[in-house]
Amino acid sequence: MRTIRILLLGFLVLTLTGSHLATAQMPDLKRGSPVPTLAPLVRQVTPAVVNISVHGRVREENPLYRDPIFREFFDVPKQLEKEISATGSGVIVDAQRGYVLTNAHVVQGASTVQVTTKDNQKFSAKVVGRDSPTDVAVLQIQNPVGLQAISFGNSDTLEVGDFVLAIGNPFGLGQTVTSGLVSALGRTGLSKQGYEDFIQTDAAINPGNSGGALVSLRGELVGINSAIISPAGGNVGIGFAIPVNMARRVMEQIIETGRVERGRIGISLQDVQKGRNGGAVVADISPDSPAEKAGLRKGDVVTMVDDHPVRSAAQLRNTVGLARIGQELKLAVQRNGSLSNVMVRVAPQQKSNNASTSLIQ
């Protein structure tokens, strides 16, 4: 099976140089002849993937520390902190300005951040901003010299079955490259809150890979490796990456304002039941909300947003939640068998809103 997989990867590499997969010939594997390899692609993209070393302090969350009797008896301060040291991965996306994409949890509590490139250059970096709901953070390397960035891909065009590479720093071993497939798209439910639209892959992702690159065979960044499912803490073939389109929108807001300001249109959503592929059903509408003013009704099925297909309620929620305040969204809405377009202006979140995660805020 491993030999077959290598050959398939080799065929796909040939397509990047203009050869069509259907006409690719079986390579001659005799001694001394060329064999399929992804080495040229790896050489191209790996300089953009960096190791991140973090030092800082985080607050202890033990509930006993909030008990005044316990604190008085054991002479424990009201806020107890501990020192942390952690490692992870990141991706250089702007070499001139030194911007690096990584996971928010990689730099949580960081007071100092050091970035190490593949050729062992070490740079100090600052945290420009981090967004926990999407688990995206942006770093900026101080005095960036001799850096190489990776090009952005379009994660909306990914399909199940596409080959991808995962690049990062697993277990602190140093830069490592693994390969696999896009196993699924639009995965949600990994946490109780947050904006999730994960790419699932069987490319090996382990602790330390967080914040690293998921790369297409075109050499483009399509995801930021973020999480795994593993009973034992290691790779079992189920890894998750944040789509680069989502990470890029978050990054642009962080660079501009230092944070992500989320919007809402005031609807709760449900996935479409049997009989349709994709879409999101409007389950409820908040009074006097942008959605109500735009003419949306309970039971409407939103099939597209800004001419992009809506796969699920979670995807639409993500799109609205990451849209800029004041931005107009064009929703394709199906109602009673007819299709129409509705323009909705995104409003700021209501700070007092404690609605469930199904409500777009």
Automatic annotation (TrEMBL):
InterPro entries: Chloro_Bact_Ser_Proteases, PDZ, PDZ_sf, Peptidase_S1_PA, Peptidase_S1C. Keywords: Hydrolase, Protease, Serine protease, Signal. GO terms for biological process: proteolysis. Residues 1-24 form the signal peptide. Residues 254-337 form the PDZ domain. One of its GO terms (molecular function) is serine-type endopeptidase activity. It comes from the Bacteria. PANTHER family: PEPTIDASE S12 (PTHR43343), PROTEASE DO-LIKE 8, CHLOROPLASTIC (PTHR43343:SF3). Belongs to the peptidase S1C family. This is Peptidase. It comes from Bradyrhizobium lablabi.
